[in-house]
Design a protein that fits this description.
Length: 335
């Protein structure tokens, strides 16, 4: 297992380099000028110095190499300096946002807690709800519970967040006045009242996201359980006199979790990527809103860095999912 993980990590390096190069070259085709937002009163020579400081105007390969060195070499040094109080990155140029003129990673770190509060909790809630629903729907196939679960999941698949979000705002904020319609990102949780306020403002965005994720995971769980319930080893286990609980939970569930683990693991990077539509509907100042704002502002360093972070997370959690296969199914070997 260790050899397999090491080999996959080594192979992921050229994969990530290729992905980053393709993304960078595609973004170079985007129209726009980072100096477009600079006031007209700024002299042309000052604008030119600003362009040079931002790395604009140089050949694309030179810009890519500078960005790669900053992301892969300088930013880790900044993190080490933060942890241990060293000065490895002192005086070195970091990845600078064209929009805010500040380091990109500093902005990302500021936004991540808001995204994790909303999207992360929604993902956990969806998993805790979806797996039992999928298991019981498969075990009681075509029952009233199964049909009701199918109906709810169809709604979750069909209704987009830009409809359910405003609908919840109209019902719970405008009509009933129970929940706040705008997410307060400046709220600091330091006592019971602030914690309660944080939970109240998270209810609606978590509901919107959890509905979609639950619909997807419960369908995967149900289909995988149905496939395994009809296998020969299940009939053998029942013939040996094992209780139904042991057959379903110990034998069927473990094998059924293999494809579901893939879906869950590959969905975790989306937590860090945020939910663009939901974050904009509820004004959550998270990573998703940051990405869409950077796209509209033509902030190429911000867009490039965020997409590269997402690529790293996808490759990493692909590896984690493959390793979990061996944990769930001992028949899988990585020789």
């Amino acid at each position: 297992m260790l050899t397999y993980a090491t080999r996959r990590l080594i192979l992921s390096i050229p994969t990530l380099l290729f992905i980053s190069f393709v993304i960078f070259m595609l973004l170079q085709l985007a129209p726009g000028d980072p100096m477009a937002q600079v006031p007209l009163t700024v002299p042309p020579e000052v604008k030119e110095k600003m362009r040079q400081a931002l790395g604009v105007g140089e050949p694309a390969l030179v810009q890519y190499w500078k960005w790669l060195v900053q992301v892969a070499w300088i930013e880790p040094q900044v993190f080490i300096d933060y942890l241990f109080g060293t000065n490895l990155s002192e005086g070195k140029l970091r990845v600078i946002s064209w929009q805010t003129r500040s380091p990109v990673m500093d902005i990302v770190i500021q936004r991540i807690p808001q995204t994790l509060w909303v999207v992360g909790i929604a993902y956990i809630v969806a998993i805790l709800i979806a797996l039992p629903i999928g298991i019981y729907s498969a075990y009681r196939q075509y029952s009233v519970f199964d049909q009701a679960g199918t109906f709810v999941t169809m709604i979750g698949f069909s209704v987009p967040p830009f409809f359910t979000g405003p609908l919840l705002i109209v019902i719970f904020s405008v009509q009933l006045g129970w929940l706040p319609s705008i997410y307060d990102t400046t709220l600091v949780v330091n006592d019971w009242d602030s914690f309660k306020a944080q939970m109240m403002q998270m209810v609606m965005p978590v509901m919107v996201l959890a509905l979609q994720i639950t619909a997807q995971l419960s369908r995967y769980m149900r289909a995988s359980m149905l496939d395994n319930l009809n296998q020969d080893y299940v009939r053998t286990a029942r013939a040996k006199g094992l209780s139904e609980m042991v057959v379903v939970i110990v034998h069927v569930l473990r094998n059924s979790m293999i494809p579901v683990v893939t879906v869950i693991a590959l969905g975790i990077p989306s937590i860090f990527g945020g939910a663009i539509i939901t974050e904009n509907v509820f004004k959550v100042n998270g990573i998703g809103q940051l990405l869409i704002t950077a796209l509209f502002a033509n902030d190429l360093p911000m867009v490039m860095t965020l997409t590269f972070i997402f690529a790293v997370l996808i490759v990493l959690f692909n590896l984690i999912a493959d390793i979990l296969y061996g944990v769930l199914d001992p028949r899988i070997r990585y020789d």
